[in-house]
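Weekly modeling sync, notes
Attendees: S.R. (lead), two postdocs, one rotation student

Agenda item 3: backlog of single-chain predictions. S.R. asked that every request posted to the team notebook include the full sequence so nobody has to chase files. The rotation student volunteered to paste the first one in as an example of the format we agreed on. Action items at the bottom.

Example entry:
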Amino acid sequence: MNALVDTSVWSLAYRRSAASLNPTERKLRSELAELMRESRVKVIGPVCQELLSGIRDRNQFDLIWGDLLAFSEEALTLWDYRRGAEISNQLRSKGITGHIVDCLICAVALDRGFSVFSTDEDFRHYAKHIPIRLHAPR
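Predicted structure, as returned to the notebook:
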């Protein structure tokens, strides 16, 4: 199954040094590398924008952007945004405020049969109310 990778996982790979990672984070980083080797990584534009935002060093920005270009971008449609809004409303009705990009990730993953690969605990809460599949490292 393909995995839609959230900003939190990309940040472990690109914005943190290997020496600063704990064993769990190293395992997640290794899993991302394995998914890349297997050509199972999926990206969407809003996640790329989140990852690149705030990078002050132009060389690092360009390096990450170049790496992201290696993946085929999942083209988003107005229907994806509509579905994201429906998910947001569904979560809100349960007392959960879903972040806009998170709800879009959930919509794309649900509609395309992808798992969501994230370290963000919010996705665990979302999964209690919407049928997203969370990617677990092997």
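Discussion: group reviewed the output briefly. Residues 78-134 form a domain with the Rossmann fold fold (CATH 3.40.50.1010).
Action items: rotation student to repeat for the remaining queue; S.R. to check formatting next week.
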